Write a sequence for this structure.
């Protein structure tokens, strides 16, 4: 479903029925400005300084990642307290703990993320024997403007099989990183972030991305 946020009714939407939700104009201009100010004060780490992640995602530029501060994180999670999210998370059996993980990201010209389904934990901490299961992925865009020829689209795939049973990925949705929009989709789902074009010059694709997760009793 793609809908302006003011027309969205969380109580009537279900991720069981529609695994991809795009809410346009989710953030106000004031909220976006607050997040950008917080980003400007954040301590950023480049992909090349994250060996495990850069090994898992080679040749993807040097995009940046930063932690969210307490007030901004609380506001972010408060705004994402949608009944459709809680309903989907609670639909899984034997939950012992619930987790969230969200960070700031900055993609500049040449940066991208290759096709993956968010279940590859090769770059997760080796000290956690059973990492939480990612249930819903979130991406939301906070830059002031974004033009069509600057790239950086989020591409979601449909996982199919050919006549021989081999996996084939078909493009299901190509979502431009429009300022203020929010994208939520169920995991696993193959997706990628298209490379930001040099035409973007020094404009950055600014986002918050991460997951709602659960731990299960087996």
């Amino acid at each position: 479903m793609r809908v302006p946020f003011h027309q969205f009714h969380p109580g009537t939407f279900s991720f069981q029925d529609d695994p991809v939700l795009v809410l346009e104009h989710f953030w106000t201009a004031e909220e976006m400005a607050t997040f950008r100010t917080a980003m400007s004060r954040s301590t950023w780490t480049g992909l090349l300084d994250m060996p495990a992640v850069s090994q898992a995602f080679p040749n993807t530029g040097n995009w940046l990642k930063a932690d969210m501060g307490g007030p901004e994180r609380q506001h972010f999670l408060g705004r994402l307290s949608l009944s459709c999210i809680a309903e989907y998370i609670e639909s899984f059996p034997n939950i012992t703990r619930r987790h969230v993980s969200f960070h700031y990201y900055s993609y500049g010209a040449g940066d991208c993320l290759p096709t993956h389904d968010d279940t590859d934990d090769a770059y997760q901490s080796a000290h956690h024997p059973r990492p939480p299961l990612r249930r819903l992925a979130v991406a939301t865009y906070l830059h002031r403007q974004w033009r069509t020829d600057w790239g950086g689209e989020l591409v979601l795939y449909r996982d199919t099989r050919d006549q021989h049973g081999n996996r084939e990925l078909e493009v299901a949705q190509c979502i431009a990183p429009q300022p203020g929009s929010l994208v939520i989709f169920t995991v696993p789902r193959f997706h990628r972030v298209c490379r930001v074009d040099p035409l973007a010059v020094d404009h950055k694709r600014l986002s918050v991305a991460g997951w709602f997760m659960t731990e299960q009793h087996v």
The domain at 2-120+130-216 is CATH 2.60.120.620 (Jelly Rolls). The longest helix spans residues 29-40. The chain has one domain: 2-120+130-216. Residues 93 and 216 are 7 Å apart (CA to CA).
